[in-house]
Structure prediction request, 89 residues.
Amino acid sequence: MSQTFTEKEILGDALAAQKASTGHFNTFATECVHENVRHAMLHCLEQEHDIQQDLFEIMHAKGYYPTPAADEKKVQNAVQTFSQCVKNI
Prediction:
C-alpha cells in the first residue's frame, strides 16, 4: 500500500527533523571536552540552524506556517529586553 504525502507534510517533517537536529548538536556542543570538537559541533549547529531557517521561510512563503504580524512596539521591547540580558551576563 503506497501513501502519497503532501508538500506541506514533507516540509513539516523536514522542519521537525531540523528542530531535533539543532537540539542534538546544541547538546553535543555543550558537553564537548575538547575545544576543537566543540567548535566543529558549533559549526554544524550553525549550518543546521541555516537549513531550519530556509525550511521555515519556504513554509511561511507557501502559507504552510502562518505567523501573525507582530506589533512593532512589542518587537522593539523584546529587542531591548534581550539586548540588556546579554549585556548583564
